[in-house]
């Protein structure tokens, strides 16, 4: 019997806990390829079987154009590959369907059968060429890999990935897939989660950019979450996903495969290529309408010495060799068209770093490219405790369809906009995202938005002269001020102590981050002096 989906995450949790027991000592960064690959295979098989069942019913429906009493004709229809591909369903040969693996799960050669199936599916569906994971026959899932694969096959066999009762909004595969990716991030640290951005942060950036149509680019595309959320945004607002084109670049081959699987099962095609975005730009001529991304934080040894002096991307200055933040930012600016917008996650240090980073930031601001800065709550990310923010960059502030925002930048301090999930993890709620997004829409002067007003402690608009007065530091707290507090302190003592302890811990973390940044700047100055 298929396991039914539910809204509280019990299905995903049960699957993860069971799958984890089968992993043994295998590192999450390796295990994810096997587990997600099998999930992908199961989802393809379920979609194929659902379409096959639909065709079967239509051949027996007298009101259908498929109706026939001829059994040979019926079999022809059921095996007509175009009848599957026309509905965005991958055609699967018999020995690649899930029931075949269930029937052969105890075979010692089950790993080889899965590898053969992956190759056969790619042969049948050329656009999947090189995407499906292989290596199940030599898997190190456990001391006896065939036993572990048998258990995984039987576990996933209980799930029906297809939406029930025609509910197209129920994306069971997507829920499980996203949950597994998140858990790999939490379980595997940097090795398992370097490609994952929390869904709430992705949703916030997409809601800000409103990418209804045009070219969407993610130069650090990871598992493709930015593209998936863009699709959900468009569909939820009644738009047409055929009006977007997807471009991406990802350095790791295994993560690139995951992102392509993620897109294909949602009916999305993307021009996603492999390579280091800075050192081996695979989209040199691309001018994007939107860039949505989360590059690595404070990346050192990013390859500065390999950059040509006349590289057109670094028109505002060459970033220091020990921090790639402004290499990434300038790469994004370079790939925006004349009215393009970018939303990118950044480590908080990018808002206040001095020396060469500060000079580059100054030039970007003077060229009126900084549209908004949002300080995020701490502990949002699974793989790092480094405090983060969001930069909104825009080349079209003077030509915006709503109002001319030339010379203005919106600052939002959203550090207290979160729900605490655990002692080490926070999350932006839908209400928090809504409050931030509506503030930005009001700032832009969008139709149906409220009239914008500065709110002490939360949001404020500053012009370029005002930013210069703050020495080009763009930490939102400098601009929004401190909210008025109620002098009547009725907060229970223990709750207040817990809150202050938590706040002090976060401030210590920020202090350590700032100390490291200062040390790096001093080392850079010393290096340049010599």
TrEMBL record:
Any single Pfam family the record assigns to this protein? N6_Mtase
Domain of life of the organism encoding this protein? Archaea
Asked whether the keyword Nucleotide-binding is assigned, the reply is no
Going by the record, the broad EC class of this enzyme is transferase
Cited InterPro entries: D12N6_MeTrfase_N, DNA_methylase_A-5, DNA_methylase_N6_adenine_CS, SAM-dependent_MTases_sf, T1MK-like_N_sf, Type-I_RE_MTase_Subunit
Give the transmembrane ranges. none
Q: For the N6 adenine-specific DNA methyltransferase N-terminal domain, which residue ranges apply?
A: 11-156
| Catalysed reactions, semicolon-separated | a 2'-deoxyadenosine in DNA + S-adenosyl-L-methionine = an N(6)-methyl-2'-deoxyadenosine in DNA + S-adenosyl-L-homocysteine + H(+)
Sorted alphabetically, the Gene Ontology BP terms of this entry are: DNA restriction-modification system; methylation
Q: GO molecular function of the protein, one example?
A: N-methyltransferase activity
- Tell me which EC number(s) this protein carries: 2.1.1.72
Query: Which segments constitute the DNA methylase adenine-specific domain?
Result: 169-486
Q: Which UniProt keywords apply?
A: Coiled coil, Methyltransferase, Restriction system, S-adenosyl-L-methionine, Transferase
Q: Which PROSITE patterns match?
A: N6_MTASE
* Protein's UniProt keywords contain Signal: no
Q: Which regions form coiled coils?
A: 497-528
Name the UniProt record assigns to this protein: site-specific DNA-methyltransferase (adenine-specific)
